Queue: 4 jobs
Job 1
Amino acid sequence: MKKNGITIPLILIFFTAIASGQSINVQNIKKIRLKMYPAEGLVWKGQSTQNTNWNKITETPDGRIWFCGGDHWGSDGVPGGWDQSERYERPWGFGNTAICYYDPKLDKVFYEVELDRSSAIYSNAETPGHGKIHGNIASDSKGFLYFGGYMGSSYRHEYTRAYYPKSYVGGAIIKYDPATKNIDYYGIPVPYGATVGLYYDEVRNTVYGITPDRAKFWRVNLTTMELNRYESIARMSRLEDRVREMILDKKGYCYFANDIGGLTKYDPDNEKFTDINVLLPGKLMDFRASVVSSDNIIYCISTDGFVWSFNPQTNKLTDLGHVLGIPDQPHYTPNIALDEEWGRLYFLAGNHGGKLLEEAIGMLTVLDLKTKKYHWIGSVEGIEGCFGAVCSKSHSVYFSCFGNLYRGNEIEKDKNGRPVTRPYLIRYNPPRILNSAE
Amino acid sequence: MKTIKGKPSGREKIRFFTCLYSVIILLFINPAPSDAQRDGGLPKSSISKRLLISNGPQGPIQGGESAVTDMILMQDGWVYGSTKATWGGENCHLFRTDGEKVEHVLNITDKFPGQTAITDLFAGQDNLLYGGTSTYDEVFDDKGSKYDGGHLFSFDPLSKKIEDFGIAAAGQGINCISADLTRGIIYGISYPAGHLFSFNLKTKTIKDFGEIMTPWKIKDLGRVSWRGVPKVLMIDDAGTIYFSTYFRKDIGVSTQEIMKGGATSYSSNEGGRIYRLASGDDKPVYTGSVVPTQKGMDSDPLYENGIASAIRAADGGFWCGSINDGFLFKFHPSTSTIINKGKSFQYWNLKSLAYGGDGRLYMLGGRDEDNSWLLCYDTLTGSMECLGWPDNTTQCNVICADKSGRILIAENLRHSFIWVYESSR
């Protein structure tokens, strides 16, 4: 017993520090190239204006994979090879996003709907529109889609300058029916605030979301059209970056990483918040992507790459180690996909915008949930970042990426001969037996 | 404090190292202010500390119990603060800070069950801390509620003794208090009923002066509350109290618009009217002074107009901050004069005032449940400046100078921080 007094805390400390001990061999990384499916739409002067994709993606019951591409034109001014003066000329304004789908039967991407028009945003250079979707494209059992808008660096206005006459109006919420093309526009829950996390609770017909900078949590009941805005509940002031994610479990409870390194739980029926007595792993103690199993186990990955699971029934948190085993490296993995049948999690490391750092690797990773073993499949060529991932019913894994676009062996270039950055979907067909992929 | 005798057991060792581990973790997650300031941040070097008030799920101040409502520097050199429960939290607390650390002092809800907020504090010359309590707005909106009413109390920081003066108004919370200790009287305003009352410390009797603000109930984004109830009571050396409230004015319907059986007049609430009640009087009277505002906004049906904060000035006047516009103005009670100094930020609700060690008047302003700006007014030069906000997600409610003259900026969130601002850095 005396030994345990010292040993247990030391184990805790080392467990947090080195996680499960699995680590990638950076000297022996295989390069792989996966087929890229660029987002369609937003063509101006015969050329795509899209250069970003920073959202979670979804599969509808018909098997289609929904993703999007944005022009990223906004207060952060990333015109993607276009001249800044273009912003006064485009008919659909300044900052826009096209929602697309990939049909696996036809192996093809189709443009579906445009976000500025859906939300009646009269965007222009001074009052920019939705330069991307940064939250989830969510779907329900009937195939309806739910999504909201985002403007890059909008927080600069959202927080400090929102009441000057010109601002981003805020993340508009849309419900879209692909079968009828009907659009229901539900307004802007937090004026001047973009949307970074968006979830739909089908039982309560309610959309939940958070804003990036002030971490304002809100909900809209789509039946009653009641809007509730809460305080900066998702705030994690230890993060230098902003909040990007919340969790919605299968019972309708929401979860947020909080300022004391734990989880705060929200009860939708009485609007009460309670802190759960757990400490999240890693230095930053947060999560950037989450997925929930059908038996209501939550899986997450943190900004610094720590993977963990949480059982809301027992309030037990399990540290599943680091996605690459090198937590101090500047990689960024804000995506997670779950294959329940095969018992796996999938990740794709990348960067938070910009060219991929060599250290970031861009590694496609599989975690076998039965053996707790990480399998590093290979470094995906071309990608710079990936924010969304989903595993389809057919076990194919889709990642919503941006980066250099390969069409066959050719890399797409702009009129000046420079490789362009494009949003696209990549598809990975994993082997049934994992070791055969390595 | 409990004394531990003998050698620690294995279980105690586990507890010790687990606590040590937690401290290491908490130190780790509570670093110095980050570099990632948005535009508008205070100079990074001017924030010397960031102190977490919440203790997390193990308490004593749990999540949802650390929203700071007031802070006062006492003679023992500690700043004493009060909290309220938010979003499902159940307890309110007294805490204290010296600008270096935060210590829990007392769980007020344990003493007064059902009270989830300490709404206001007042420090007397007797070095006692006086406070008033209340509860969630939803409780007042519940017709079946068994809430008995807000308590008046005093707390002695030296002896840690708390004295309950009882319930000020049955079923009502206490919105704000002030004290005329020369005459031994505490004044307060009930919420949401909006009655002015006094409590005589010698006779322990309560006097109700009647309604001074007709409750203005609203339900905004699903949350019920009452606007217009005075937030501040000012008191001068003569024991006269001052507050701002609304004046209901009946406006006749024009002859052409009168309908059969319809109203012949409608009422207009005109806010920001400053009233006074002299010591010994039974009825407050209008001073003729109006809180400065954009023309016409005093009767706006949506925005509240009144005094959000006040602090005694050296010349006997009161520096005040307005709700609607966030103006800084001085109210001279002897002449009922208003001098508007304007504002140096584009937002509103100048909700807290404090003199810093450098002699300047510091101000906290900003949207109600949102970002907060620190501003300052140089009383010598008459210049006003917007200094910035502490960090990109701060939502602060109150400022207070500590014994070194540093400005403590306290939040009103589930897990609130105190930011220590030093102008000299």
Job 2
Amino acid sequence: MRRIPIAALTLLVMGCATKTKRTTYVDPDAYGAVEGTGLEARDVRAVADQMAREMLGSPVIQGFEGTPRVALLKVKNRSRFLIDQDILTTLITDKLVSNAAGKVAMLDRALVEEIQAERDAKRSGNIDAQGFKAMAGADFFLTGEVRGLSASTDEAQSDYVLIRFQLTDAESGIVSWSSSYEMKKEGSWGVMYQ
Amino acid sequence: MGRDVPVKALFLATLLSACSSWVGPQALQAYPGVENPGKVVAIDKAAWKLVAVRNLASDRTADGRLHVRVELSNQSAKDLPVQLQVLFRDDAGQITGEDTPFQMVVLPGGAVKLHEVTSLRTDAAAYTVQVKTP
């Protein structure tokens, strides 16, 4: 007599333990079920879009003779949020390469060692080559930084985040263009960014 | 019971008419003297009710890209977060493939805010601004 309720209880507990929330695809620009006061997908996409458009329209790029070459440097994160620093420059590069080819050339400095090794191997005759050319030098460096101001109580959190990009002339060091994206959010504690 | 039927029918009719008053994307209302020939549309009912077009213009940059300026007005007294997306279209009205993300803009209560976007490509000839509430 006693075994039946115990078995039923065990089945019930197993049923609860295996219950999971169904994973769904959501629009990266939409509000999600998990939201914090930090950088969300829609913020990152909006920043990259704005920066790509403003940089392309800047007088220094528009007035450049020939195709300006821009080398991307790592974004510095000075905010309290843990973010992938490359995601912003990746999205900016995608926007410009897909839509503004010929107007600006993006240099890949992450592969310098691999490119140099390939060049050396070609020139030593270890592998063949279909022609030689000089490595492209940068006309500008694109740098960015994320900064933040935070305030909190026991229950609520407020964050002001400033994301700034600038183009620096690679010969003179003069800042040729800069732009900022600001946002402020208020919400409750509890979301971790990773 | 007999009196309940007309009341219930009236309630149901009201409910149905309320539900059917929103018929999908609609051009945002515009201020007098401003024309919005379907270029700025609300894609939800709240945006359609609360946001109006105060001004709308487009021109070309020196290198041939399309520059869009839209002034949006918050018709309510409270701050209103909205999301805006610009879709660029070619001469034939087809989407070029270039668009912006749905960017968050907070319209202060009763205030007007300018939103400007310039296309990256030169084949953009027309545009649609989509407005929604988050």
Job 3
Amino acid sequence: MPSSAFETAILTTALYGVMLIVINMFSVVSQWVFIDSLRIRLNEVANQVAYEIAGIYSMCLQSKGELAFFKPIEIPVSISEQGYAIELKKIGEVWHVVVYMETNRAINASSPIWEDPGVAVHVGPRASDGDLFTIIRNHGSYTVYYVKEDGALHSGVGKPVVWARKQRYGDQVEIRVGLGWLGG
Amino acid sequence: MHVTLDNAFAFSILILILITIMGYIIPSAYVSFTTIKEHQLEEIAQSIMDKILLSPGVPENWGDIHTVQSEEYLKAFGLQKANGSLYELDVDKILRVASVNTTTTVTLPSTVRISPDTIARLLGLSNEYGFSIRITPALNVSFEVLAMHCIKQTGHDCVYSVPSRIRITVKTPEGRPAIGANVTGLYILTTLEDNPGNPHDPNDAVANFTFFFVKDVTDWKGEAELEFGNPLEGVKNENRALRRTCTSMVVYVDYYGIRAVNSHIFKDYSDFEDFLNSTIIDNYLVLEFDDAPGIPNGARKLKHSGVYEPEVGLANPPYYIYLSGLEDITEAPPGLGESGWIINRGNFRIRVYSLSNIVDDDVVLIMLPVSVPTSGGGRRWILVNFFREPSNVICQKGTASGNIKTSVLKRMVRVGSFHYIVEVRVWRWGER
């Protein structure tokens, strides 16, 4: 039956076609799920960093005098074996912690810190602050390297920290908070 | 023909696989994602709570309406008292954020109120998250009148009687009885009496605030009975020319270091025709007339005959109340304003009165008797109450209705000398 051979060819091709569509669909859906899982894990990191920044800022506020300190943050070295970066970014008038995959910035998550008040508290170091500051304690000294404005804290860095400094500039007392890493 | 059947069978299997993937694997993955997202909400709530309770905001003393006259001047939000200790909040800041009228707390006029939208904006929450802040006393205190005492008698008939024995029930925030709590009840008897300078005028009267306190310890049920019969007998012996009476009570409870305070007006046992709740900020009493349903907009005279100046009673628990004069500072255009001593809607929706004495941080209740002329030429007497303690302050942006997941955190704080519970509730819009 010539029609049978033709029918077999058509149907088998169609079957392979559907199979291909199913496999592609599976792959796309898996990718979606995977990206969503990455976003959730990035969000976890963003929330944690935002929480630590709010906390360190509150601690700094309670101090009466000038102060500089840091707090180590425990964040994963990688997410799904891939590196990621953390930035403090002003979106509109609100400062956010933005975390994104190094391989694809479109895969990102953010957590709000606060609206920029413009006075009293600032995010990131002053332009004149250099690259680092040192805290000397009885048991040793610590060097904290700033993540500069427009810079990012990369997940591979050894000892990531959030830092806060309360300093007097003339009549004004200014608090600065930011990201950094511990040197040495 | 069998070829078609084979292919149809193969198609069916493929469709089955597809349905399995869509119907089982994806939802099961997303259920765990939702659980993680809910957990992440706790971090957001914790962060918000820290910002609210551990920072004073910018400017630091924004509770002062002279410093921040309206919300547009507020640069950062926090309820901590400027230069205060950890978890010490500023009562004026709390009063400014109240956005919901409750049985005791009256919201401030919108001109000085800090709206939940502004708070959300300053906290960086934008439209993604909703939140509510609720502040209540650290201990739940309830009142029950057990006996009355006659303080004015004509022959054998009692003309005026007031509550004399009051059962106080104290419970922890979890609803358990607070056993062995030290209770101090500050009894405040507000009376209107004949004006000595004009005793025969039925439309003229003077206000008096009489107070005394009694202490007791709660039993195993968390109850204490406070007996005020003896001091009330003293009032009876003074044989005052009474016209109206109202009993209020401020209860101070010390439960192993947790100090809570709660006020109550015994309206059911009062002769005042009506009651009006209003609000206070700094040392300004604020009356907003749209918030007074059932009360006529007519003049509410504070000064009746020129013999005395109007006074308000400020309850400062646990032991005393003090008096203060007040002055109408509502800015009235020339020719349009009423007399300074009249609370009158007139052309103005809001009337503001400045207290001449400083309002102590611990003042929780302020009472101001006023009168309203009736169409028959007489007067109705009204007691205006200003509940200053955060007995139930709510500030919320939106409502977490339905099955929306919320994260709730609670923390004990101090306002003045007393402890309160702050509850912060956060939710993400569109998450179910």
Job 4
Amino acid sequence: MSFLSKSLAIARKEALAEMRTREMVFAVLVFTLLVLVIFNFTTGVSPQVVHDIAPGLLWATFSFSGVLALNRSFVREKENGCLDGLMACPADREVIYAGKALSSLVFMLSIEIIALVIFTLLFNVNVLSLPLILITFLATIGFAAVGTLFSALSANTRAREMVLPILFLPVVLPVVISAVQASEKVLDGKSWGGLSPYLQLILAFDVVITAVSYLVFAYVIEQ
Amino acid sequence: MKGKETLKTVGLFAALALFVAALYMVFIYVPTEAQMGVVQRIFYFHVPLAWLGLLSYTLVFISSIMFLWKRNASWDNLASSAAEIGFIFTTLFLISGSLWAKPAWGVWWTWTPRLTTALILWFIYIAYLTVRFYAPEKQQGARFGAVVGIVGFVDVPIIALATTIWQSEHPGALIFEGGLAPEMKLTLMTSIAAFTVLYIFLLTLSTGLKKRENEIEELREKLE
């Protein structure tokens, strides 16, 4: 089996486990919805205010729900002792990383697309446009790349879930900053040209951080 | 062993002497800056702290790579010592900056690229220390720390770039500009030298302490 088909096999295993238990999708979706509702009360509902804060609101929500989703990725394996099984399978550590990152990416993207729809309905701001979906896609690659590494790391610490936000949030801040700025441009009706510095930065983060995470992942789950 | 102790004593006295000189220069020798007045003297503490905060993280990065590669505990001792001292220096850097910002800019904090990057660097130091603290055993903590050390360091230039692009559209804060008078330059150099010698002294103390801790642990394991 090639690297790709092995990684896809692990991603498929993740998807199957999730479809059978549905433990993550339910919790993360309700959590995302609740964050949006709470933000609504902290900011008021005047259309101008909502328009001004929508990008920040969206990315704060995605960051928090991302932490929640990524946490489960490895804590679940740890709880059932599955990580040992996963490590015993005839595949490199890097394959586990790629499969896990891929499944986290797909999972987070699905939640985010639903969140974008709900956001549009609840706040009457159209965030379901092609540029915004592209920003979300690129930023989520970065989230999944570094989040998978840190999820594996924090699952192996004494405090488990508690540690991930402390590691994840400061490191993804450049992505959050750029995604918020780019989303603001989109909502203000700016053209693609105005977005390019932000998209380039997110892309640079994705490439650099994926490469580094891929290289160091083996050291995290080593016994 | 004896030579090392002598070297440590020399280091301590060198740091002390340099600090006495630096304090004299900062408070008595150097002229007061015309625009900002007395408060500008914080500059001579602020800049060395910034420099050592960054240097320290570079040290964490290099020794983290070396540790993962060579698996030699002394690289890990160096990385964790540099992280601990670097964290303290970066904290002092943020505090001294804040104390200076209030009279100079009228606010305790502004979100300029440099300040924001420094703050995030501070958070990454915390992340590094957190994984070491929460690791179930020392060996694992060393590996986890190295991973965070590497990823965090690679992230710093991206953070700097992101905050710069972000802030280029907002009004920038008033920054201390223009060349330094020769007295000011000399005072700054002396202060940087004093802080750097202190840093090296603290680093040697800390790595020495960790080395002994490792030795004690090994002896204890042999006894059991």
